[in-house]
Write a structure and sequence with these properties.
Blueprint lengths: L8 H18 L6 E7 L5 H13 L4 E9 L9 H12 L5 H4 E4 L12 E7 L8 H11 E12 L5 E2 L4 E2 L7 H13 L5 H6 L6 H14 L6 H10 L3 E3 L3 H12 L16 H10 L4 E7 L5
Parallel strand pairs: 1-2, 1-4, 2-3, 4-5
Antiparallel strand pairs: 5-9, 6-7, 8-9
Helix pairs in contact: 1-2, 1-10, 2-3, 5-9, 6-8
Organism: Hanamia caeni
GO molecular function, one term: methyltransferase activity
Keywords: Methyltransferase, Transferase
Length: about 300
């Protein structure tokens, strides 16, 4: 995959979207400095890749990279933020990363100025955000009027839940139903329990199911397409699902050993086929949500 420069198809897809926006939108607007925010930057692996790759693909453009994550999530390992700072310092020691990387509570407003960013993106983050209205309001506040915000993540529609690898487990409202569904799923051969067991897990099926029912209750917040569209409208953001099918196109190209797409076509940014493919692909796994705040009316 891209000569090993990208650790996953998701990273490649987000990189290709940024290149597409720069070539067909920002170069036409003669923008010379582009500020990019990675929301939920985690360990900084994707951000470090973009720091290395984007200037090579876009000569004549200067980039400023920023990262934001939360300190009240149970998903990340202890000390992950300090490790991210060290990683990014090893990639670009000229930047004062302590100033460009922010760690906040999930209830806080973002510590950035209004109309500050040209691009805001996230990778597999929005399904973990419980106050999605605050999240989108902060995008509207901090992104420039010509800016793009895009987010790769799964909606509630999808069938095979990607964290536990058990079908439909994210659709139940009752904790008890979720708990028993996980147990039955394990007995039927679904999920990650057997893989963890081979790696030395000592928990019983009952303990594993209880812990992961808690995970589904407190660590994920799946929304439908209608719900996220309503939230976007409330926050004065235009929403679409452009680029969604291209993620799967990248997957197929990788499967067949074809070279990856590092930039998409201009017609991919706004095409009727995006809506057609989205209708089916939202049931498979991740979609690409695109948000913009410019209003021409």
């Amino acid at each position: 995959m891209a000569s090993g420069r990208f650790v996953s198809i998701t990273h490649l897809h987000l990189y290709a979207i940024i290149n597409t926006i720069i070539k067909y939108k920002y170069r036409q607007q003669a923008i010379k400095v582009i500020r990019i925010l990675d929301v939920g930057c985690g360990t900084g692996v994707l951000l470090s890749t973009l720091i290395k790759e984007l200037p090579l693909k876009n000569p004549g453009i200067s980039f400023e990279f920023y990262g934001l994550d939360v300190n009240d999530s149970h998903i990340q390992e202890s000390g992950y933020f300090e490790k991210m700072i060290l990683l990014l310092q090893s990639v670009d020691a000229k930047v004062e990363w302590q100033n460009n990387l922010k760690l906040i509570s999930s209830h806080d407003h973002w510590p950035f100025e209004d109309d500050f960013f040209d691009i805001i993106f996230s990778n597999q983050v929005l399904e973990h955000v419980f106050d999605q209205e605050l999240f989108l309001k902060e995008i509207h506040r901090t992104i420039k009027n010509h800016g793009y915000s895009f987010h790769l993540y799964p909606l509630k529609h999808y069938i095979y839940e990607g964290h536990l690898l058990i079908p439909f487990v994210h659709k139940f409202k009752s904790w008890t139903t979720t708990y028993y569904w996980i147990k039955w799923g394990i007995y039927l051969g679904f999920g990650t329990y057997r893989r963890h067991k081979k790696a030395g897990l000592t928990s019983s099926v009952r303990e594993f199911a209880k812990r992961h029912a808690d995970y589904m209750a407190f660590e994920v917040n799946y929304q439908t397409a209608r719900q996220i569209a309503a939230t976007a409208k409330k926050c004065r953001l235009k929403n679409s699902f452009d680029f969604t099918y291209l993620y799967y196109k990248q997957k197929l190209r990788s499967l067949f050993g074809l070279s990856p797409l590092e930039i998409y076509r201009p017609t991919d940014m706004c095409s009727s086929k995006n809506s057609f493919y989205f209708f089916f692909l939202k049931y498979v796994t991740g979609i690409t949500l695109v948000l913009r705040k410019n209003n021409s009316f």
